[in-house]
Design goal:
It contains 23 helices and no strands. It has 474 residues and is an all-alpha fold. The protein starts with a helix and ends with a helix.
Amino acid sequence: MNRSESKNSWLRWLTVIGSAVAISLAPIPSGISRESWILFAIFIATIIGSIVQPLKGSAMVLLGVVATILFGALPIEKALSGYADPVVWLVLAAFFISRAMIKTGLGKRIALLLVRTIGKKTLGLGYSLVFTDFLLASVIPSNAARNGGVILPIALGVSETYESKPDDGTAGKLGTFLMNLLYQSDVIICATFLTGQASNVIIAKLAKENSGIELTYGGWFLAAIVPSIFSLVFVPQMIYRFFPPEIKETPNAAKFASRELEKLGRTSLPEKILLMIFFAVVFLWATKDYLHHLDTTTVAFLGVAVLLITRVLEWKDLVNESGAWDVFIWYGGLVMMAKTLSESGLPKLFAESTSGLTSGMSWTFALAFLALVYFYAHYAFASITAHVLAMYVPFLVVTVVVGAPASLTVLLLAYFSNLSAGLTHYGTTPAPIYFGTGYVKQKTWWTIGAIASFLNILIWSSVGLVWWKILGRW
């Protein structure tokens, strides 16, 4: 580490520690215990640490868990209770299934088949990869694995086939368009499924604990699918019209896909087994409480168990899946802190202290105002998880207090948590992956992100509200 990097690291640590000290020394509000206030200080410091990152996010959470024990905020049994939560294990199991998707090559085969079928025009090429992301998101909560491991390599391969490269003035031929299209579509897909990205299961948990509203796999998807389809039509069309690729016809993309499929060979037995498990898991998730009462996490682990028994996955694949264990450490600690804080009375206190901001407003205007603040606050976050844990519960409580229907508020904030990630080149994990290719300049990325945000907000707060009314959600 050079001198400049060392200085930056110390500044980041000072930011984290300073925030914790400042909060812990502030006057404790009436009705809040000293232990809850210390936990709040550690929680805020952990969120700030996840943003400025003197260490990796999961390491910061682990330090936060240790701090809750060390400073007497929680007994060790309570501090570690998050790692026993079924939500955390659900995410872990789904990551293991995503490992099988990449290991067997099934995800790549699906993408290539779609490219070969509808990829002869540039927009069709983009949609073939978007549809791949859509299918995979129905069971794989790692948007990084879907995009970085399956979709991006194909997009790069096709771009290079058309001699569109990021560093020689040819990026605008095809690559820039694809990177923008795929990322903006991904955040919409993240909002479509409970498994769209890993933080959604935490959103569902926070919603149930703080409003009593349960967001099941099928319920989340049913409420999202109609506005999602509108967004997936209009946002790509906006990008194609106002930020068009130079190449409009891509017959070579189909040829590229055919060549890659030849290299993959015939569909292997592990791919066939995984495909059956894929559909079985989605079916069981979607029919929970209708055809059976198997817990969602149980279904996911049944899928993993079959993958192990059939040797599609080896035990070493699970052990070496560092991303899964990274998320496990991260979510287990954050789930515990968020749940404990929800029980402390702090969200209610926040709602009472900020109710003046919406004083005199009808609940419709109050909901619109708070939802917009919540959406554009994502400019300050480099993670959907950090955004959700810092703001979801307080904004949910405040909005319900002013009279907004709890079910409507839960849905709107849940979907906005995902859609807002399209604003920046650091909004969620695939953002730096796509931005890092060098095809898109930051100004263009942020411009498209802002325009897409207007479209998404308009669609989900109009089409979405009408659809949710039809479903009886408010």
